[in-house]
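Usage

Read records sequentially. Each one opens with the input sequence:
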Amino acid sequence: MPLAPDEVLLICALRNASKYLPSFLAHYRSLGLRRFAFVDDQSEDETRSLLSQEDGVDIFESNVRFGASARGLIWRDMLVDLYGRNRWYVSVDVDEYLVFPGSEHRPLNAFIDDLRRHKLRRSMAVMLDIYPETTLGTAPTHTPLEAFPTVVCPLYDTSSYSMTKHYKCTTVRGGPRARLFDSHLRLTKFPVIYMDRRSLFTGVGGHSPLPLHRNHSAVHAILLHYKFTTESLTEFHRLLADDQHPRRSEHYRKITQNDGFNETLSMHYAGSARIEGSHQLVNSGFMQAL
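and closes with the structure output:
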């Protein structure tokens, strides 16, 4: 069905995501979202059947895999063209949970109004990897919880980050992936974005939509990255074998080939802290309130 004039659509590409979907949908519905468009990348688990039972969910498929679609960016641009330009979208992965100042009690539309008042057409966010208090082998599973992911992974790194200027966007790197596995991926993304005729996800990379001059601002949101659970011990090996990510899945190769990535791994360190809410992330400088 067509979108209402001011309706915000969430777009997402996923594969074998049944373990995330209950909490993912519950979280974004709590922010006021009612419409979702998923591109299912040939899932082999219960993803398709779960989505087909949900209200407000449109399901798409492709004859090519994630890697051949510029890592899903072509799909995202096709969805924008289908549903319409000159409107706001939420563009996230299924393991990313959006937090913005006051998101516990303010809907997404209020945050978008803040962006509009400051003449911003997208919100820069930092992916904040969260992890369990225990070792990976003894951490609770996140299947089939609908609870917010911090129930399973309540900790995050408070230090070990760097911020630099880059022509593509303001760049943040670091966190537990860098600290433990020497993996220095760009952590900045733009999950809340106004897609006009000049806007494209494809172009210079998944974390840097066009036009580039809109990618330089303060951090106004956080994406809690729900990746390091007990299932990651097997999931990361599957992702490496699937080989749909950049540079022959170099990121997952670095982690899985690290001797420390096993059931005894505790990601806790002196700089770990518990997630206590959006106010904490503002007060500690991870994001700014508008």
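Summary fields computed downstream for this record:
- Residues 73-83 form the longest helix (11 residues).
- The longest strand covers residues 122-131.
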